C-alpha cells in the first residue's frame, strides 16, 4: 500500500473490494478495520491487517491499495478464514546458481522500460508468438537479448527457477525461460513456478504461461498444453496478483472448447469467482464475470452485452443453478 509523505494530501478511499469471505461479512470487517469508502486512506498497511486478523475466525489478512478511481485509491482486502480453502506454496529453495550479472541488469532495466510504457498507455502485451512482447522499441531490444540467451541456456535458467534461493533470480528466470525456442520443453518448469513462495515469481510464470496458452490456441498443430489446475487453485490465494493473473490465464484457456476446465472451475472455484465478479471496481471484476458466464454456458457476445447493461446477476444466477446429474 502506498505510503503518503508528510505534508501530502491523504487520498480518500474510493472503493473497498473484499475477497475470501465465507462466514465473515463486509460490514463486520469494515467495522473491525475502522474504514469506509470516502474516508482517508489508512497510513499503515500493517496496522490495518492486524485489526482485520483480530476478527473472530480470521487467520490472515492482506490489504493492497491500487490507483485510482477519480482522485481516490481502491482498497482490496483479502481474508483467509479458519477452515477455508488455502493456496499452498513450496518452501523456498536453497541453491546458489545465478544468471550472469549483465542478464540480471537487462532484466531490471526491462522492468523499468515496461513500467514506463504502461504509464504512457503503451504497455499492452502481444502473446501471439508464445512470448510476452511489448509494442515498444526499447522493450523489443531487451526481448531479443532474452531470446538469444534463452536459446543457449535453458538448463541454467531451469536450474535457477527450480533451485536458487534468491527470489529475484527465480523471478527473472520465470520471465526468461519462455523465450526459449521450444515452448513445450518449459511448460512444466513454469507450472512448477506457480507454487513458488514468492509472488513475483508466480506472477512472471503466469504471464509466461498466458503467452504459451495463446500460441497453443493459435497453432494447435504444435501440441502445446497448458493445464488449468494450478490457476484454479491460485484463486484461493490471499494475494491479489495471484487472483488477477489466474483469472486472466483462465480467460485465455476457456476461450473456445474448454468443457473440462469450466467444470473444474464450477467444482473448485465458483463461489470465489462470483465474489470477484461482484467487485465494485469494474476493470478488476470483468475477467471473473466472463469466467462465471462461461461456466453458465452463456455466449461471450451475450456476456459482453450484459456487462454493458450493468447486469452481472443474470449470468451469476445461471452459473449457480445446479446442473442436473445424468443417470447412468
**How many DSSP helices?**
14
Structural class, by secondary structure, is mainly alpha
Largest sheet: 3 strands, mixed
Contiguous low-pLDDT stretches (5 residues minimum) are: 1-7
CA radius of gyration is 21 Å
Quick recap of the structure?
By secondary structure, the chain is mainly alpha-helical. The chain is 52% helix and 10% strand.
Detailed description of the structure:
It is built from 14 helices and five strands. With 328 residues, it is mainly alpha-helical. It has three domains: 69 residues, Roll (Ubiquitin-like (UB roll)); 156 residues, Leucine-rich Repeat Variant; 75 residues, no CATH class. The strands form two sheets. The protein has a three-stranded mixed beta sheet. The termini are far apart. The N terminus is likely disordered.
Sequence-ordered SSE layout with sheet pairings:
Elements: E1 13-19, H1 26-33, H2 45-53, E2 58-69, E3 72-81, H3 101-119, E4 125-126, E5 133-134, H4 137-152, H5 154-163, H6 167-176, H7 187-193, H8 199-218, H9 229-234, H10 240-253, H11 259-277, H12 282-296, H13 300-308, H14 313-320
Parallel strand pairs: 1-3
Antiparallel strand pairs: 2-3, 4-5
Amino acid at each position: 500500500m502506498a505510503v503518503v509523505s508528510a505534508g501530502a494530501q491523504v487520498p480518500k478511499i474510493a472503493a473497498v473490494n473484499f475477497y475470501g469471505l465465507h462466514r465473515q461479512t463486509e460490514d463486520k470487517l469494515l467495522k473491525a478495520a475502522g474504514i469506509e469508502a470516502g474516508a482517508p486512506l489508512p497510513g499503515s498497511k500493517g496496522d490495518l491487517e492486524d485489526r482485520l486478523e483480530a476478527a473472530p475466525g480470521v487467520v490472515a489478512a492482506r490489504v493492497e491499495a491500487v490507483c485510482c478511481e477519480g482522485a481516490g485509491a481502491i482498497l482490496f482486502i483479502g481474508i483467509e478464514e479458519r477452515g477455508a480453502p488455502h493456496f499452498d506454496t513450496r518452501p523456498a529453495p536453497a541453491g546458489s546458481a545465478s544468471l550472469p550479472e549483465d542478464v540480471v541488469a537487462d532484466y531490471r532495466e526491462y522492468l523499468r522500460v515496461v513500467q514506463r510504457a504502461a504509464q504512457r498507455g503503451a504497455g499492452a502485451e502481444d502473446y501471439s508468438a508464445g512470448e510476452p512482447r511489448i509494442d515498444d522499441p526499447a522493450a523489443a531490444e531487451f526481448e531479443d537479448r532474452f531470446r538469444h540467451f534463452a536459446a543457449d541456456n535453458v538448463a541454467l535458467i531451469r536450474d535457477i527457477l527450480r533451485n536458487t534461493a534468491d527470489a529475484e533470480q527465480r523471478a527473472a528466470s520465470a520471465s526468461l525461460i519462455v523465450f526459449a525456442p521450444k515452448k513445450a520443453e518449459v511448460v512444466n518448469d513454469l507450472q512448477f513456478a506457480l507454487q513458488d513462495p514468492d509472488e513475483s515469481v508466480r506472477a512472471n510464470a503466469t504471464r509466461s504461461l498466458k503467452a504459451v496458452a495463446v500460441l497453443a490456441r493459435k497453432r494447435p498443430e504444435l501440441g502445446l498444453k497448458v493445464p488449468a489446475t494450478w490457476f484454479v487453485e491460485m484463486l484461493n490465494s490471499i494475494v491479489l496478483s495471484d487472483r488477477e493473473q489466474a483469472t486472466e490465464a483462465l480467460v485465455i484457456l476457456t476461450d473456445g472448447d474448454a468443457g473440462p476446465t469450466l467444470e473444474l472451475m464450477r467444482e473448485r472455484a465458483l463461489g470465489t469467482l462470483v465474489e470477484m465478479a461482484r467487485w465494485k471496481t469494474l476493470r478488476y471484476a470483468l475477467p471473473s464475470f466472463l469466467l462465471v458466464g462461461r461456466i453458465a454456458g452463456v455466449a461471450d457476445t451475450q456476456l459482453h452485452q450484459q456487462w454493458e447493461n450493468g447486469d452481472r446477476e443474470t449470468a451469476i444466477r445461471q452459473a449457480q443453478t445446479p446442473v442436473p446429474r445424468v443417470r447412468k
